[in-house]
Amino acid sequence: MPRDPTLRAGSRDAVTRREMLRVGGALGLSTACLQRALAETSAPVGGSFGRAKAVIVLFLAGGPPQHETWDPKPDAPADIRGDFAAIRSSVPGLHVGELMPKLARQADRWSVLRAMRTADNAHSASGYYMLTGRPHLPKNQENATPKEPNRWPCVGGVTRQLLPRRSPLPGAVTVPEHIWNTGMIPWPGQDAGFLGRASDPWLIHCDPSQPEFKISGIGLPEGVTNRRLQNRLSLREQIDTRLARLQDELPLETHDIWTRTAFELLTSSETRGAFDLSAEPSQLREQYGMHRFGQSVLLARRLVESGVSLVQVNWTRDKDGTNDSPMWDTHRGHSELLKTKLMPPMDAACSALIEDLEARGMLDETLVVWMGEFGRTPKINPRGGRDHWGNVFSVALAGGGIRPGVVHGASDLNGAQPKDDVVHPEELIATIFHCLGLRPNTAVIDHQGRPHPIATAQPIQAILA
To answer: How many CB atoms lie within 10 A of CB 338?
Structure first.
């Protein structure tokens, strides 16, 4: 259907966002309908817009090093270049770290951002910036928690609110657990913030690598039939007015959403099937890696295949709490940790995902984002480690809406500062939304009824298909 010309961006007769919200509310239109209408006030540009049906975010918590991954510095002094060589990739002229040979062979599927910058060296504060596109206030605050003024919704929360559900599963899912500060307090930027709990990504705390893996709470209890559950739901709907007293604590609409979502999760065979990793060939499971991260990445593929719009897979700490594998936070023993515990499983899982998506014809409509909260210091410290570094680091994207084989931006000789085409999280988030078919000026509404654009920058045109 052609758009009404009076809705062109910049038109003298264009309807303002505030006016649309006011009039739409008076007509009884839902917030989601209004937000999508606001997003269409200017026409999308380019074939990359809306190419992705789903996004998989591979979040390497702790801060993966740029020098040993996507931006090696073979000509730098030894205490900067590190212990590992740079190897050729499938993209002419692009060298990557020798510890990711499988991703090197797939480099022609990826676009690499070599000049990402947060200028924030605190895990949780920089992580908040990367996951929301809004800088944390204040910067460099370690062990930050989800509280005002840092309550901007994460990309999954925005996605879950704005995009229509494509299956009984929630629109955004996080596996296998949240990212934690010291003391097991979650980082800010992992929930829907001011959008409300109904838009939170569904957190699945799990270890898919365990034998007989299954998700508790999905499926009906023994002796409860679909009909019996439907009768219970009908009874609940008859007494909705009694729930009005809870409105001050939680809007009634939120309870409705939760009830319907729970009903669909309990009764859907499609939902149960999405979590059945035993349905996958053992050879494919081994290709991803029979560890928590690898099987979580495989689970992410199954979830987007089942209709989830965004899945975030977090690299997590060791279960026993030791420092043998402190996420990617390699303050000491950097080279040994990379060689034995971090790079091999990452390389296997991420490359298996790309190959698997491609084999299933899903890569062109699934955006994959490889990232962490920041990078590592250019110079190796006296403990044989690299410390936090938000001044410049690397991010890689592949799949739906992304032009493959591109290297955008550059760091300086030592990988210490951006040299060309610096990119900030605002642009990364705008790019993700662009590929999902959401323009930066799409509005989300805070708890005071005020509209906010979902992104404050434009997509990175150089890497778009």
So the answer is: 25
The structure tokens 């190796």 sit at 380
How many residues in the chain? Answer: 465
pLDDT digits (tens, 9 = 90+) for 248-300: 444 545 555 555 555 565 556 678 789 999 999 999 999 999 999 999 999 99
Superfamily, domain 49-209+280-438+459-463? Alkaline Phosphatase, subunit A (3.40.720.10)
Largest CA-CA distance found in the chain, in angstroms, rounded:
73
Tell me: the pLDDT tens digits for 101-147? 999 999 999 999 999 999 999 999 999 999 999 999 999 999 999 99
**Structural contact between residues 95 and 87, judged by C-beta atoms closer than 8 angstroms:** yes
What are 69's two structure tokens? 């991954």
As a whole number of angstroms, the distance between CA 22 and CA 114 comes to: 44
- Cβ–Cβ under 8 Å, residues 423 and 411: no
Q: At what angle do helices 425-436 and 123-132 cross, to 10 degrees?
A: 40
Residue reference for tokens 């080279």? 335
- Cβ-contact 217, 261 below 8 angstroms: no
Using only C-alpha atoms, the chain has a radius of gyration, in whole angstroms, of: 22
Interatomic CA distance for residues 118 and 314, integer angstroms: 19
The dihedral built from the CA positions of residue 457, 39, 57 and 449, taken in this order, carries a sign that is positive
- Quick one: which of 197, 191, 120 has its CA closest to 375? 120
Q: Please, what is the Cα angle at 306 between 301 and 307, to 5 degrees? A: 105
- Taking the C-alpha atoms of residue 304 and residue 55, their distance in angstroms, rounded to an integer, is 8
Domain with CATH 3.40.720.10 in the chain: 49-209+280-438+459-463
Phi, psi of 201 (to 5 degrees): -60, 140
